[in-house]
């Protein structure tokens, strides 16, 4: 994904053309991620969840061939650098141990193992910081981290997925495990999410012609907060779930385009690194958001176990986080406007 985004921002000129390109890219990526809940439910219901993974193999082979044949090689004059494999391994392991630890700690008899795994996460995260600081090709270059626009873009990307993917996953588990809906029925309730992502992404490019990107991010996160908040009272309603899913989809579409544009608005030399950081932030948002919300839901309502209550506390947490993010970006927009004035 970072390579695709770097390619996109390199071949399109800055301005409206790049905003439209990023909107199309964000819509495609967000719609693909959102539709996973729907397509996965349909495939699982009709065949088996294993078929989902087998289906990726021919798709990946076809796409790889098309890209290799159609995209010209970048002749760039920058000298090649070695990959920071040690830093990459430490970073990936720290995220994995966090997700695994937060899952295991909720299981009967898993408190000790989960706690030790979370402690290992802290050690690995500290090791990554040390390794990356000393690396010849750091994953987080200091000059790049000095860009406020990159930090804002990464924060927006993290919040977008942390407050939508996690809530949708939680509702899916509640519909299937507690209300005994089939995977196909749960998928049908989430179809509006996938469709609204595309609409929100298209609207974001238009909105950014009249508003600065931080304000568009704030508006998107506000929609997500409202959707998560409405789900608190009706996580199993036949009409409320699709309505809330549509609002959340429109919100993430609106916000993700603006956040991606913010994060990749750097010099050509740093564009690849910025693309990697923004996309990693979005993936981390999904992983961390799902892990935290499931941990909170298991502790407060028993989800995802059968016979559990509605995961209201976990959904409220998602709504509060999205609202806080919206307020932060709105204040950022106000301070930027004051500085310009």
Question: How does this model look, in words?
Answer:
The chain has 341 residues and is an all-alpha fold. It has 2 domains: 2-49 and 141-340, Growth Hormone, Chain: A, CATH 1.20.1250.20; 84-136. Helices cover 79% and strands 0% of the residues. The protein contains 13 helices and no strands. It has helices spanning 2-11, 16-46, 49-70, 85-104, 111-134, 142-145, 148-178, 183-189, 191-207, 213-233, 240-263, 271-300, 312-340. α4 packs antiparallel against α5. The longest helix is centred in the N-terminal third of the chain and has 31 residues, at 16-46. The chain is globular, with a radius of gyration of 20 Å.
List the helices and strands and how they pair.
Elements: H1 2-11, H2 16-46, H3 49-70, H4 85-104, H5 111-134, H6 142-145, H7 148-178, H8 183-189, H9 191-207, H10 213-233, H11 240-263, H12 271-300, H13 312-340
Overall residue-averaged pLDDT value: 87
Helix share, percent? over 70%
Oligomer class? single chain
Give the class from helix and strand content and strand pairing.
Answer: mainly alpha
**Percentage of residues in DSSP E strands:** under 5%
Name the CATH architecture of the largest domain. Answer: Up-down Bundle
Number of domains: 2
């Amino acid at each position: 994904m970072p390579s695709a985004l770097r390619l996109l921002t390199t071949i399109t000129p800055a301005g409206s053309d790049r905003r439209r390109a990023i909107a199309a890219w964000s819509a495609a990526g967000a719609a693909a991620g959102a539709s996973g809940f729907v397509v996965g439910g349909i495939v699982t219901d009709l065949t088996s969840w294993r078929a989902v993974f087998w289906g990726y193999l021919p798709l990946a082979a076809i796409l790889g061939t098309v890209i290799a044949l159609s995209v010209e090689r970048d002749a760039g004059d920058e000298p090649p650098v070695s990959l920071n494999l040690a830093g990459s391994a430490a970073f990936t392991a720290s995220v994995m141990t966090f997700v695994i630890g937060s899952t295991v700690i909720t299981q009967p008899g898993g408190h000790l193992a989960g706690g030790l795994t979370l402690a290992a996460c802290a050690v690995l995260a500290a090791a990554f910081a040390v390794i990356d600081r000393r690396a010849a090709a750091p994953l987080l270059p200091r000059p790049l981290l000095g860009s406020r626009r990159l930090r804002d873009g990464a924060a927006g990307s993290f919040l977008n997925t942390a407050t939508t993917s996690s809530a949708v996953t939680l509702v899916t588990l509640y519909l299937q495990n507690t209300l005994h809906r089939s995977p196909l029925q749960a998928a049908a309730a989430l179809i509006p999410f996938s469709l609204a992502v595309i609409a929100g992404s298209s609207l974001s490019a238009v909105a950014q012609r009249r508003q600065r990107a931080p304000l568009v991010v704030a508006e998107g996160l506000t929609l997500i907060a409202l959707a998560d908040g409405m789900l608190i009272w009706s996580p199993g309603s036949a009409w409320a779930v699709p309505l809330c899913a549509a609002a959340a989809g429109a919100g993430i579409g609106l916000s993700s385009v603006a956040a991606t544009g913010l994060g990749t608005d750097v010099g050509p030399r740093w564009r690849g690194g910025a693309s990697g950081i923004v996309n990693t932030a979005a993936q981390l948002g999904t992983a961390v958001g799902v892990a935290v919300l499931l941990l909170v839901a298991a502790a407060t309502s028993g989800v995802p176990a059968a016979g559990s209550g509605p995961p209201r506390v976990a959904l409220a947490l998602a709504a509060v986080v999205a609202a806080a993010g919206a307020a932060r970006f709105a204040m950022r927009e106000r301070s930027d406007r004051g500085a310009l004035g």
